[in-house]
Amino acid sequence: MIIVVKANVEEKDMSKLLELIKKCGLQVNYSKGVGNIILGLIGDTRALDVGLIESHEIVDKILRVQEPYKKANRLFHPKDTQIDVMGSLLGGANFGVIAGPCSVESEEQIISIARDVKKSGAKFLRGGAFKPRSSPYSFQGMGLDGIELLKIAKKETGLPIVSEIMSTEMIDQFNQDVDIIQVGARNMQNFILLRELGKLKKPILLKRGLSATIEELLMSAEYIMKEGNDQVILCERGIRTFETMTRNTLDLSAVPVLKKKSHLPVIVDPSHATGMWWLVEPMAKASIAAGADGLMIEVHNSPEEALCDGQQSLKPDVFDKLMSKLKAYALIEGKVI
Length: 337
Ligand code: PEP
Ligand code: MN
Hints:
Layout: E1 2-6, H1 11-23, E2 27-32, E3 36-42, H2 50-54, E4 59-63, E5 83-85, E6 88-90, E7 96-100, H3 107-120, E8 124-126, H4 144-157, E9 161-165, H5 171-177, E10 180-183, H6 191-197, E11 204-207, H7 214-226, E12 232-236, H8 254-261, E13 266-268, H9 270-274, H10 277-289, E14 294-298, H11 316-332
Parallel strand pairs: 7-8, 7-14, 8-9, 9-10, 10-11, 11-12, 12-13, 13-14
Antiparallel strand pairs: 1-3, 1-4, 2-3, 5-6
Helix pairs in contact: 3-4, 3-11, 6-7, 10-11
């Protein structure tokens, strides 16, 4: 529920109103606009006596909003949120490209890819150290050794590193070593993990679950933000549908919907969305047209030998050509890569 309060009200009148709201066990998101003050009520508003609120003279109107997310809602934060990671910006006019292998495999591999993607204009290096695989017999990632190799690649290139966390046990380690902590599709609704990540002051890349609605994605962002961490990046990575020609179905319409509903940056991962390297280029271009703030693209120096997701990884020279095109596409949308 939203209460629109008239501008220039006396403090004692505002205190009275706030007291009444808090007595009902609700939290208030306070936002001062040019011509009014907007109070976003957080919590179960069913017990609230709307008539009693309306009786306060300072109240202009009461709006019932359907949206249960408040902190992620653009209504309370009209300006786009920009995330600053070691000086590299994501969001607003800055189109950020995160690139790198599905998983870290060796020092030579990650350093060579890091150098290549940096040369092509990527601002962030991705690399999975802990891999959520469907089969327990598949390569599970290098674990903490992988994080150490990412740190070496960061030292070599200066690129901030992005890696996926799978459990709360790893939070301290990731908080110390990783620049953007990724929550994968399979953990989008791991609420205990989300809550703990909300206590950090670290950007969180939140991927949409395989069968999650847009609202569920926003509610998961809300779990993180409710604890105080407002640096959340949303990622559309394709959803499960009846279609089998592609690994997932890229829900591109989710991008403008998310941008309309939320102030958080929205990026697209065309690699996991399509599952095929030759589909990455058209979908990356389309993502820019749809209004995305960035992309996450898998790049591997030798895809045919990759331990994970080689079929959807671009070779460095293909990535380089794609980046040249994307820079021009981004300019049309008023963004810079
Ligand atoms: C990944 O980015 O490596 C990954 C596993 O992605 P998702 O969680 O979207 O499947
Ligand atoms: Mn992958």
